[in-house]
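Figure 6 in text form: structure in, sequence out.
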């Protein structure tokens, strides 16, 4: 059992680094938009929230919300599999998949900013960041996947 403890700590630190890097990348998206499309930061709230491309914006909104919701389902499912298989690597995989799905929301916002000059792009990036913050790595998940189950 003492062999598992360093493995759990190593996995946890790795998960923290991955999480922090992906959260920081979301802010890089905002900086990229600011440097390339500064006119999007002069907010004109008299424009409709759907912009000029209502159907496209609504489609991106549905895709972003679906991706973030699926991120929680995938992570939960992989954590359950990790506990059943006693495999801490599955916990890390679950985190990475969940963060990637949340990042998809931010990428939708980035696409809306560049392709459609959509001024409310930050809502999609905010949704992605919120999802990522809610997916903060938990050591308990790794411990549950590394502890052998008691015999019935």
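Output sequence:
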């Amino acid at each position: 059992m003492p062999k598992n403890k360093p493995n759990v700590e190593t996995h946890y630190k790795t998960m923290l680094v991955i999480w922090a890097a992906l959260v920081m990348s979301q802010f890089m998206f905002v900086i990229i938009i600011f440097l390339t499309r500064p006119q999007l930061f002069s907010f004109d709230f008299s424009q409709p929230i759907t912009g000029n491309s209502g159907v496209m914006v609504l489609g991106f909104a549905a895709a972003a919300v679906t991706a973030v919701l699926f991120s929680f389902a995938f992570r939960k499912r992989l954590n359950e599999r990790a506990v059943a298989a006693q495999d801490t690597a599955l916990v890390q995989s679950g985190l990475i998949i969940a963060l990637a799905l949340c990042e998809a929301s931010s990428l939708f916002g980035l696409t809306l900013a560049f392709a459609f000059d959509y001024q409310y792009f930050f809502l999609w990036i905010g949704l992605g960041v919120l999802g990522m913050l809610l997916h903060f790595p938990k050591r308990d998940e790794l411990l549950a996947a590394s502890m052998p189950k008691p015999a019935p």
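Caption detail: The chain has a mean pLDDT of 90.
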